Amino acid sequence: MRGLDTNVLIRYIVWDDKKQAQKAAECIDRIIESGSSCLINTIVLCETVWVLESAYGFSNNEIADVCEKILTTKQFEVEHVDIVRSALAEYRNGRADLADYLIGKLNLNKGCKITYTFDRALKDQREFLVL
Length: 131
Description:
The protein is 58% helix and 11% strand. By secondary structure, it is mainly alpha-helical. The chain has two domains: 1-79, no CATH class; 82-131, no CATH class. It starts with a strand and ends with a strand.
């Protein structure tokens, strides 16, 4: 397995810089041809969402669709895939960022009964208590 950084994944997704996008695609192809897979950890996934939203103006639904494609692409291995799926479902219909939902789900998975936050967008989420 080989890890991908956010900038490589972004180039692979948006193809806004053809030279870097080509390098990213060639890198991913080499990894796959070697019989390995590409790890996308939760930090890379959260950074990717942030970049797609802030730099490229993607909507939540567009971002959720991109994330779903990442989750279902056999060449990619996403860290905590089931937790990410759960957080992504809430993100698609919610008002908070994917990272916020992911924090709550990861903490819940580690045994936290509650995660304290100041983020009012999470007031209806059972794993959060808004202070």
